[in-house]
């Protein structure tokens, strides 16, 4: 994991431990990202999927271990002795244990373990890619709420201004200094502003719903975030180079290619000779 990514996630986790219901009145973008990192359902699902993939290594390593089989049988017979008039019941049983150990399987187990480990690395990179996408969406939702709330405020102020203009136009018309056209135009502008305010408030509510979906909490008072331009690469070429070397989606695909190659080798191993040893005991 790149140092920058580790530092960023560390900062988020530190902020997460400081969150409480009595925190500062204004939410910061770092606190919002910490909530998303902890509570986002898609991210928690991806973490669970990564833990499931980890079990594949243990399953693949089971090929190195011996297998034990047990068998048991019980026979029950009943016969009558005509001379003595007695019934004889005879019960017999057989029990056995057999141990099989693979000595050589054409390197199938070795390649299966390598493929499972590559799958784990791919799953970890996929998780990191999901983390980055979720945090990016959380940051976008945070800024969208701030933007749309401010647009709604400015639209409301514009409505107040146009309302005063319409009132002034009507007053001028009443004293004979204006025309009906002026009043109609002012009323039309005000009606447009009313519709724009309703649209702006609906957009702000939609942004708040998206914020709640991604971050897991209702947006309260949000503090504006600082510019992040200083964190960007120095040039477009350097950005491409960093992405090619560190982007988790690319790394995950590379690990999946490795896993597929090991799976092919494992399938080829089935054509090689097999050698195993077995021992058993029965009574």
Mean pLDDT: 86
The major pleated sheet works out as:
3 strands, antiparallel
Give a count of the beta strands, DSSP E runs of length 2 or more.
5
- The protein's oligomeric status is single chain
**Considering the protein shown, what is the CATH homologous superfamily?**
Outer membrane efflux proteins (OEP)
CATH topology: Outer membrane efflux proteins (OEP)
List SSEs in N-to-C order: HEHHEEHHEHHE
Q: Please give the radius of gyration in angstroms.
A: 36 Å
What characteristic shape results from the CA principal axes?
A: elongated
The structural class is: alpha+beta
Strand order of the largest sheet: 2-3-5
Tally of individual helices: 7
The portion of residues assigned to helices is 55-70%
Strand content: 15-25%
- Number of folding domains? 1
The CATH architecture classification is Up-down Bundle
Taking the alpha carbons of the first and last residues, their distance comes to 58 Å
The CATH class designation is Mainly Alpha
Low-confidence stretches: 6-24
């Amino acid at each position: 994991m790149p140092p920058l990514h580790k530092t960023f996630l560390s900062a988020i986790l530190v902020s997460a431990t400081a969150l409480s219901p009595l925190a500062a009145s204004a939410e910061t973008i770092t606190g919002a990202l910490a909530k998303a990192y902890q509570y986002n359902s898609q991210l928690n699902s991806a973490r669970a999927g990564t833990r499931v993939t980890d079990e594949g290594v243990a399953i693949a390593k089971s090929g190195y271990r011996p297998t034990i089989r047990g068998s048991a049988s019980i026979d029950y017979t009943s016969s009558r002795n005509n001379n003595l008039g007695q019934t004889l019941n005879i019960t017999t049983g057989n029990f056995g244990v057999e141990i099989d150990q693979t000595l050589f399987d054409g390197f199938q187990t070795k390649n299966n373990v390598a493929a499972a480990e590559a799958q784990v690395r791919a799953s970890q990179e996929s998780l990191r890619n999901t983390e980055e996408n979720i945090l990016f969406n959380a940051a976008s939702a945070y800024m969208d709420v701030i933007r749309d709330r401010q647009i709604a405020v400015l639209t409301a102020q514009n409505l107040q201004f146009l309302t005063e203009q319409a009132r002034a136009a009507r007053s001028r018309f009443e004293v004979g200094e204006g025309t009906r056209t002026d009043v109609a135009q002012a009323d039309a502008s005000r009606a447009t502003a009313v519709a724009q305010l309703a649209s702006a408030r609906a957009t702000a509510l939609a942004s708040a719903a998206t914020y709640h979906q991604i971050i897991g909490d209702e947006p309260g008072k949000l503090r504006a975030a600082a510019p992040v331009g200083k964190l960007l690469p120095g040039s477009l070429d350097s950005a491409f180079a960093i992405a090619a070397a560190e982007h988790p989606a690319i790394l995950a695909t590379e690990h999946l290619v490795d896993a597929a190659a090991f799976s092919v080798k494992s399938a080829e191993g089935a054509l090689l000779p097999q050698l195993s040893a077995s021992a058993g005991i029965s009574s």
